[in-house]
């Protein structure tokens, strides 16, 4: 059975950190759209399309995979259809924590700032609030609050509740 664990959430909600921990712990390959965007320098529509196309062609080869993205892309439907079971895991926390984390990331000028965060003219607060409204529309199987727990603690909860279940 082909299984996809799809991590969704806002900017700086902990998707990458938690997904990488679980990927290592359970030896499941992790795919991040942001890594593909960086590789393809996805600053325009064509390069964004290239990033998604490559991610799709890579991830569908897996029997089990972890995907981390906002959870909002139309490309997800095509990916989800290639798996027998898709478990969508929403990571969330308060807007104030998301804004604080985003500002720290931007001040540190880390390479993992998504292009859509660093290239937008809108203040990060507006981007986070807009995404929060969009995230209310997605259907998910599990949700975890990452506001007051470390990525390791969240990963442990997810591991016990989802990854180690016999049907998963």
- For the record, the CATH class is Alpha Beta
- CATH fold type: Rossmann fold
Low-confidence stretches: none
Name of the CATH architecture: 3-Layer(aba) Sandwich
Continuous helix count: 8
Write down the domain tally.
Answer: 1
- What portion of the residues fall into strands of 2 or more residues? 15-25%
Tell me about the largest β-sheet: 5 strands, parallel
- Give the end-to-end Cα distance, rounded to a whole number of Å: 10 Å
Characterise this structure:
The termini are close together. The chain has a 5-stranded parallel sheet with strand order 2-3-1-4-5. It contains 8 helices and 5 strands. The chain is globular and about 45 Å long. Helix 1 (15-26) packs across helix 8 (151-163), helix 2 (33-39) crosses helix 3 and helix 5 (95-108) crosses helix 7. It has a single domain (3-159), classed as P-loop containing nucleotide triphosphate hydrolases (Rossmann fold). The protein is an alpha/beta fold.
Topology:
Blueprint lengths: L2 E7 L5 H12 L2 E4 H7 L5 H15 L4 E5 L6 H6 L4 E8 L2 H14 L6 H4 L5 H12 L6 E4 L5 H13 L5
Parallel strand pairs: 1-3, 1-4, 2-3, 4-5
Helix pairs in contact: 1-8, 2-3, 5-7
Brief rundown of the structure:
The protein is an alpha/beta fold. The protein is 49% helix and 17% strand. A five-stranded parallel β-sheet has the order 2-3-1-4-5.
């Amino acid at each position: 059975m082909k299984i996809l664990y799809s991590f969704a959430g806002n900017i700086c909600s902990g998707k990458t950190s938690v997904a990488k921990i679980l990927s290592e712990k359970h030896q499941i390959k992790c795919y991040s759209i942001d890594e593909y965007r960086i590789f393809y320098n996805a600053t325009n529509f064509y390069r964004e399309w290239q990033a998604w196309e490559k991610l799709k062609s890579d991830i569908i080869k897996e029997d089990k995979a972890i995907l981390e993205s906002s959870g909002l892309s139309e490309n997800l439907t095509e990916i989800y259809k290639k798996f027998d079971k898709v478990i969508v895991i929403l990571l969330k926390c308060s807007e104030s924590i998301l804004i604080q984390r985003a500002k720290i990331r931007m001040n540190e000028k880390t390479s993992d700032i998504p292009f859509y965060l660093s290239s937008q003219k809108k203040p990060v607060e507006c981007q986070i609030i807009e995404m929060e409204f969009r995230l209310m529309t997605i259907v998910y199987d599990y949700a975890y609050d990452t506001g007051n727990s470390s990525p390791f603690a969240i990963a442990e909860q997810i591991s016990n509740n989802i990854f180690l279940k016999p049907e998963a």
